[in-house]
Structure formats: structure tokens, C-alpha cells
Amino acid sequence: MRSIDALVGLLIRPNAVLLLIVVVFLLIRSLKLASGCGAVYAMLRVLYRADFQYRCGGSSKWRSLHDYKVCKVVITGGSSGLGRSLVEEILRGFPDVVVFNIDIKASPQPNDRLIDFRCDLRSSEMLEQTLKLIKQSGGNDIRLIVNNAGIRSRYEGLKDVRGQDLEDVFAVNSRAPLRVIQELTPEEGSEEQCFIVNVSSSLGILSAAKVGAYAASKAALIAFHKSYAFELESKRVSNIRTLLVVPGQLDTDMFSGFDPPRQFFAPVLSKERLAAKILQHVDKGIRGDLTSPLYAKFAYLLMAMPYSVQSIARRLSRIDECLPDDN
Ligand SMILES: NC(=O)c1ccc[n+]([C@@H]2O[C@H](COP(=O)([O-])OP(=O)(O)OC[C@H]3O[C@@H](n4cnc5c(N)ncnc54)[C@H](OP(=O)(O)O)[C@@H]3O)[C@@H](O)[C@H]2O)c1
């Protein structure tokens, strides 16, 4: 078994669950606990379904990107990594969609439905100019915004973090997503629907040693996202939906160059698979959080534990020792 995620994935398949229930039932029948287990399982299923329905629900029916004749998607950082996988999947799966890609470099392959907006997100002037250009080229039809671009800070101790690096990492990872949302989302409560995806990181919750600046910028994005998502909820706005993506390590260049520890518990994610999962959420209008792999779902729980427990868990996971030095 490659990872605990794969093991759990196998176990929660309906047949495996049924088999497990039968085995457990037979084992503990004599203790008359089987019906209790069944009831707990049924209750968990009901809660899961109710949560799913809530996340998909809203005052108006959510329209898939397939339902539009003209439709635009704005993505940042779509020229490589996870962003590129998303762009490829969108171009392949949605033939009427035009993608606006905001990236510092051009897309690796031209496509009639892919328009590059070359922009260094570290520069607020360039970003403002790009947002103006996008609005002029049909800002009304934007049905999906993916704030994906990110940069990591150097692997270094907190005392070595330079002011300019800190500004850059916050500009790309936290300020740019906020400005894109402020400028490109439709009017709240209007007929125009728009789905917003913000790509953060599990490091934004479990900040590891030597990546303090990156982790802080991703934590800021989580805070912006949550504040906005629940602002929309409190105003009963349903034409704008939001999804927070909190991935662990991806198979891209950003965190390559070292051996990720404890891969059974913290497997490296495939960018193509994550892209496909994100687009499933977009298509059905499923808002909320998309956190993967499994350990990342328990990150908040770990951070709420007593300091000593956190310390032991971190030592066992080797999260604070695995990164090399960039200096
Ligand atoms: N990789 C991971 O393990 C991991 C884990 C959790 C979360 N994430 C997050 O997931 C997202 C995607 O990560 P990824 O691994 O796919 O990253 P990636 O492979 O480095 O791709 C990011 C894209 O953004 C572009 N970009 C970088 N700096 C930019 C700037 N200043 N202005 C405009 N575009 C810029 C990059 O261009 P260049 O290639 O020219 O730099 C690249 O095309 C990021 O937000 C990242 O923080 C990644």
C-alpha cells in the first residue's frame, strides 16, 4: 500500500465498507453492538450527504461551464505546474470556454482559446494594468476565476528573511488573489454566476520551519478566503461561490529537490488528479474546502492540540527537518 490515502480510498469504497460492516457485525454480534455500529455508520452517511447537499445548494441552480455559449475563465500561473494542468483540462473538457492566463511567462503551447496576459504579479502596477485589460476584453462573461499562481520563499531561518522577499511572496500569494477577486467578480446577487478557486497550501495551516514567509502568505490567503466565503454566506449571495484548495506537496517544480518524508502518511499529490478534482467541484458548484491528502484534513486539529503533543507529532512527521538550505 503506497499511502494511507490509498488505503482509506480503498476502505471507503461501498463494497469494502459493506464487507467491513459484515465482518464487524459477525465479530461483535455476541456483544450486541452491531446495530450500534450500523447506526453510527448510517448517521455519518446522512451527515456527509447533508453537508454535500448544503455545499451544492443555493437559491438558484448552478450552471456548468458547459451551459454557456460564451464563457471565460481567468487563471493565474497557468503556464506550468498545477495551473497548466487546469488549463489543459479546461481546454480539453469545455470546448466553448476561452481561458485568460495571467502568468510571468507564456503558455508552453499556443491555442486559439488560450490568451496569455504576461504579468509579474510581484508588481502591483502590472497587475492593475492586466486587470484593466481583462475587463476591457469581456470582463462580463467570466464564470471561473482560479487564483493559482504562487511563489515559495527561500528555505531559510526566520532571521534571514529579507524584506524584499517577504514583500514579493505576499504580493503574489496573498495580495494578487484579493485584487483579482475585487476587480473581476460579478455584482453580488446578479444573474451572472462566477466560481472562485483560491489555491492555498497545507503549510498555511501547519507552518514548517524554514518556510515561514511562504506559510504566512498562504495563511493570509486562507484568512482572506474564509472571510469572503462567509461574507457571501451571511448575505445569502449564491451567484458567487468559492472553493479553498489546501493541498499538501505536489509533483511540480516548486518544492522539488528534496526527499519528502513519511510518504505513507503524506503522499505527494499528482497535479493532474488535483486539477481534475478542482474542476469537478467547479462544474457542480460545490463550495467549501478541498483538502488533500488525508493528513491535511487534520491540520487544524493538530494545531489545536497541547504544545507538547504538537511537538511530538511534528518530530515524528519530520516536517521541520526535511527542507534543505537555500543559503
Ligand atoms: N508545489 C507544491 O508542492 C504546492 C503545495 C501546496 C500548494 N501549492 C500551491 O499551488 C499553486 C500552484 O503551485 P505549483 O507547484 O503548480 O507552482 P509552479 O509549478 O511554480 O507554477 C506556478 C506558476 O506561476 C508562475 N509564477 C511564478 N511567479 C509569478 C509571478 N511573479 N507572476 C506571475 N506568475 C508567476 C510560474 O511561472 P515560473 O515557472 O516562470 O516561475 C508558474 O507558471 C501555488 O499557489 C502553490 O503555492 C503548491
UniProtKB/TrEMBL annotation:
UniProt KW NADP keyword: yes
Keyword line: Membrane, NADP, Transmembrane, Transmembrane helix
PROSITE patterns: ADH_SHORT
TM annotation in the entry: 6-28
Signal sequence region: none
Top-level taxon of the source organism: Eukaryota
MF GO annotations: oxidoreductase activity, acting on the CH-OH group of donors, NAD or NADP as acceptor
Database matches in Gene3D superfamilies: NAD(P)-binding Rossmann-like Domain
Transmembrane listed as a keyword: yes
Similarity comment text for this entry: Belongs to the short-chain dehydrogenases/reductases (SDR) family.
Name of protein: NAD(P)-binding protein
